[in-house]
Protein 1
Amino acid sequence: MRQSQHTLSVRTNGKGLIEFTDDVARWLSQEGYTVGVLTVFCRHTSASLLIQENADPSVLRDLKEFFERIAPEYHPYAHDTEGPDDMPAHIRSALTQTSLSIPIVSGKMALGTWQGIYLFEHRSAPHVRQVVLHVVGD
Amino acid sequence: MRQSQHTLSVRTNGKGLIEFTDDVARWLSQEGYTVGVLTVFCRHTSASLLIQENADPSVLRDLKEFFERIAPEYHPYAHDTEGPDDMPAHIRSALTQTSLSIPIVSGKMALGTWQGIYLFEHRSAPHVRQVVLHVVGD
Amino acid sequence: MRQSQHTLSVRTNGKGLIEFTDDVARWLSQEGYTVGVLTVFCRHTSASLLIQENADPSVLRDLKEFFERIAPEYHPYAHDTEGPDDMPAHIRSALTQTSLSIPIVSGKMALGTWQGIYLFEHRSAPHVRQVVLHVVGD
């Protein structure tokens, strides 16, 4: 058994979900594993990870709208020094994922037909987000 | 060190939580690991995973009721072509887990006394859901 | 490749977030891995895990307040035999994490600058919570 690591940079353009499944798949196919497990880790507390449907873009709009409704910007937060979008960003990160674990089967991630890997940006300004990939297997 | 993989099928009967801890434990004991880490991965975006209390069934009813309240069916979603239960299913999946990582200690999953592994079905119709298991260890 | 395991005890003092990043880092540095992946697993259904900002303590207060608002104690839950804080504790656990997977890069967890690992206690009474650590790598 062996292991590999890589850090991806994902550019965001304000709040919303950005799919980066293909970037992960490209790196993985270079590394040449047949069986194993992939860890995807987001190094931020105001952006997070999500596996979601990648067929209909309206799903992403509804998801974004849901999280804006449940953790709104205009609320008397104690933590408000980094702008009105910062504390909701932490809450939205807490409700979604910082890490994902995805089995590798027959040389590919075992994602279902409609599953894509998304970076969920929770801040209003554009950012470059770091996502660490780790795989262990054969 | 070595690794094993298996895909479980979990039959659901409409919305609700279905425990499948015993199916995982049975496969794991056949594979004969003493120490390691198990990954449980759900290949769907309208069903998800949860580790929850398996002592009192009313906990499962309250959990189901909570997610119906927080992500209701009757809401003006943009994504409504697959029925009123589809977009809430994606939201409820986003709020729970697609993957779980469980250490194996002394040949067994390190679950606490009351912890069970559940498939959370978010669609109204019955489905057969695929859950991929991966273990690496000794 | 090799693996190691350890169980940490985290003492809580009623509801709130307790950082234990340093306890994990101390154990990890003793084990001497350069590259690998760490699994952090909470053996409870009324306490959970979260990676969050560890710079401004007001973030933790806002997070606690958010979860009290979204899953309140005073609600007609079916499961009420273990006290008014028990069912909200299960819901808050379902919304956060039972397991985390963190890559190890250059001998350290690949946490971002502001990321800390927290045990989120959801019960009113103090508890001692068990967190299982597992690492596989070189």
Note: The beta strands of chain B are 2-11, 16-19, 36-42, 47-53, 99-105, 108-109, 115-121, 128-137.
Protein 2
Amino acid sequence: MKRLDSSQKVRIALDAMGGDYGPSVVVEGAIMAAEEFGKQVELVLVGNSRMIEKEVERFKLKTAPFEIIHSSETVSMSDSAIQSFRKKKGSSLAVSLDLQKRGEVNATVSAGHTGAVMTHALFTLGRLERVLRPAIAVVFPTEKDVTVILDVGANPNCKAQHLYQFGVMGSVYTNTIHEKSNPKVGLLSIGEESSKGNELTVNTNKLFTGSNLNFTGNIEGRDVLTGKCDVVVCDGFVGNIMLKFAESVGGFFRSQAKRQVGKNILSNVGAFLMRPALRRVREKLDYAEYGGAPLLGVDGITIICHGGSSPKAIKNAIGVAAVSAADGINEKIKNNLRINGLTGKQMKTEENDFSIDK
Amino acid sequence: MKRLDSSQKVRIALDAMGGDYGPSVVVEGAIMAAEEFGKQVELVLVGNSRMIEKEVERFKLKTAPFEIIHSSETVSMSDSAIQSFRKKKGSSLAVSLDLQKRGEVNATVSAGHTGAVMTHALFTLGRLERVLRPAIAVVFPTEKDVTVILDVGANPNCKAQHLYQFGVMGSVYTNTIHEKSNPKVGLLSIGEESSKGNELTVNTNKLFTGSNLNFTGNIEGRDVLTGKCDVVVCDGFVGNIMLKFAESVGGFFRSQAKRQVGKNILSNVGAFLMRPALRRVREKLDYAEYGGAPLLGVDGITIICHGGSSPKAIKNAIGVAAVSAADGINEKIKNNLRINGLTGKQMKTEENDFSIDK
């Protein structure tokens, strides 16, 4: 993952109350970030200041390596996204995004309720010029390195135009953050031929084929982990199901393996000896390594962390937010959509008669 | 998995030329089946008789434990499904299904090209009364036992009526083959609330909620492997992507583990000691255990095996075909769709205004 150049400096708001563990994890992540990124990344922790300060005390630092802004409310995991936006104007999430809206920070990181972060960000920051639908992108490890998958849940019902723009935004993202030039974009479908898939993918394939993106065609479920593409495009329904299925697989394999190792002494010794290797596998597959899921297409930088994020995941998300802001990812997306975009007619027309306008 | 009662007897056609390895694997599977099921399952191998006989010779049996019917053609993996049906009337697949159509066998098993098997079966045998769309079901292992997932590829574009019928057919299947009474049916979606998901799942949820099925509501991608449901319903696009992704995960983990074990001697010793346990895990996760994918909803029994099937997978598919035929699974599906079905109006109406008719 790219890091800041020595001349770059950013200021980031961190929703201290978000996530399953609230300030206890977020504060530790912020301290890790301060150590790693130093003065190039100024952090502003937004949340219950008493709780934040209490967490800081655990680390026996002279002063907290970040600013604290008190907020009186918290968006809980059970809050409705839209209600929390309407009613909880003083929440740590709302205050963080307001800071960004006013230009006082360059990015926001939150491990809160995904739907709420998305809704707050979209309503507070608005959409980027030309973007029809913002999308959530995640990073999957692959045989080769990593692949960016989007959308993974923001848009359960999509049209071809939306998927096309996801391809553009995903390309810019992986180009910026993973420093891949001319990233390969694949369309997740069932069957490699352009005519295979559902109505949505058949129409989207046409848009991609006529574009300047480095489109490798349809890919199948089995191709995701091989690293055949740098960007995998799908609608938010399919992406979310695959993401959650993938998250559950490691635990399933472990429980099966434990059951089979059972009381057999040799198997147990074997498992013990393999522990360091298996830990390294787990680390490679751990989403914490990849720094949260960017909400692409809003007019600002918002990184959504998993509710169960570790301090390391928070720290890495701060790193991604910093590079996204410093490298002007949104300017790049805007330019790319201008060069590689759809005509006004295509933006509005029905799905069946697309052709790209270069 | 259920086995035949001692009084049951069936006759099954086996497409000897199907699959990546053709007769070499299919003949071995048939011999394993003959040993395991004895005279209760009469097998008819359809294919190039010279090639089949040559394979039989390898086993040094006095006589082949099955009948052989010669066919002159083979549907290859690269043939178009519809073209193969129109042009290759003498293929092993076509001849097998013709035997079933004429009532000379009770079921057909093929490891051929999935699309071709589906097309041939549908056109030769026709749909079951009341069935809108046949679906392909697969069995996934879970933390508890197994779950049946459908559709996994026959129908990339679905309406709520189709998904509803998949639920009915999947229930009957797992009740018959896995002997689960009142199987729990889950609808694969993103979010557990009935209002969450895409348009298709929101509409399907309403149909299931009003039905007599044991509907547990929406489930998420992470719930598939926990065994929360006995039947997981989804459209063929989502199901196929999840199936192929799942098939790729084992290999990905193995390659990652091998890389991490690397040249470290202790890790290597550990891996060696764990081999028997890991082999048992692999066996449990091996699709070969679960006997192929039934094509549910056609007026006959057709079991589709993976192209790369092992002899054991072929043998188990024969077992599933035998029980499906002997227990009259299609009569049960027809009855169930009669009791638990949609009204004529619902079968034709748009998706938005469904309510179930009991």
Note: Chain A has two domains: 1-126+298-327, 135-289+331-358.
